[in-house]
């Protein structure tokens, strides 16, 4: 979606897909994001777009780094330990099966060692980058109240979009592709 107008760098966080290491549930993944931003440091503008875990990490990164021009945060969590993730509900797993993404889901390699995590809700007031907050009203994983709370506490230039009947993260893009794409591109061009 962005590649038609921007250079795009995309990553799988550690412990996901073909990336090495173990998934640390948001305690070390900022190092991965930092490596990508450092790679892009010669660009005149750096925007972050994140979905779910990536959305929360984009907010944390923007709070700690002044070199981020804009942020798009889709289905961000307020606190990793407060994610609802109702795995037993069909809404939480049906999309994985519908898109034949079972191998993607099974490719996550978790680290079992608990580590301290930064909570987006604790640092949201430090975000100075203009931020677009996006949520789905029927998200079974990160309830929209997370996104709304972050939006309400943010003191930066901001906008909030709630997709009625929308679900989680990248599924908002997949099911509302034209509107989602237009909204994000318009946000970046402002």
Task: List key phrases describing it.
190 residues; globular; alpha/beta; four-stranded parallel β-sheet; 12% strand
Folded structure, characterized:
By secondary structure, this protein is an alpha/beta fold. The protein is 37% helix and 12% strand. The protein has helices spanning 29-39, 53-64, 90-98, 102-106, 120-123, 144-153, 170-175, 177-189, and strands at 47-51, 70-74, 131-136, 158-163. The chain has a 4-stranded parallel sheet, with helices on both faces. Helix 1 crosses helix 2 (53-64).
Mean pLDDT: 88
How much of the sequence lies in strands comes to: 5-15%
Spatial arrangement of strands, main beta sheet: 1-2-3-4
H and E order? HEHEHHHEHEHH
Tally of separate helices:
8
Envelope shape: globular
C-alpha termini separation: 17 Å
Please outline the major beta sheet.
4 strands, parallel
Gyration radius (Cα, Å) is 16 Å
Unreliable parts = none
Helix percent reads: 25-40%
Number of E-state strands: 4
Structural class: alpha/beta
Brief write-up:
The protein has 190 residues and is an alpha/beta fold.
Question: How do the helices and strands line up, and which of them pair or pack?
Answer:
Elements: H1 29-39, E1 47-51, H2 53-64, E2 70-74, H3 90-98, H4 102-106, H5 120-123, E3 131-136, H6 144-153, E4 158-163, H7 170-175, H8 177-189
Parallel strand pairs: 1-2, 2-3, 3-4
């Amino acid at each position: 979606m962005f590649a038609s107008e921007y250079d795009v760098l995309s990553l799988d966080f550690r412990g996901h897909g073909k990336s090495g290491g173990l998934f640390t549930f948001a305690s070390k993944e900022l190092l991965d994001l930092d490596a990508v931003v450092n790679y892009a440091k010669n660009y005149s503008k750096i925007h972050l777009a994140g979905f779910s875990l990536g959305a929360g990490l984009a907010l944390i990164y923007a709070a700690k780094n002044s070199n981020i021009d804009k942020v798009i945060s889709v289905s961000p969590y307020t606190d990793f330990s407060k994610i609802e993730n109702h795995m037993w509900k069909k809404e939480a797993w049906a999309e994985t099966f519908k898109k034949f993404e079972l191998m993607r889901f099974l490719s996550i390699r978790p680290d079992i060692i608990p580590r301290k995590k930064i909570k987006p809700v604790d640092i949201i007031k430090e975000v100075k980058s203009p931020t677009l907050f996006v949520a789905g009203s029927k998200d079974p994983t990160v309830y929209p109240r997370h996104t709304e709370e972050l939006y309400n506490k943010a003191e930066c230039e901001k906008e909030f979009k709630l997709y009625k009947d929308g679900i989680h993260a990248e599924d908002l893009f997949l099911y509302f592709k034209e509107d989602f794409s237009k909204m994000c591109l318009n946000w970046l061009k402002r």
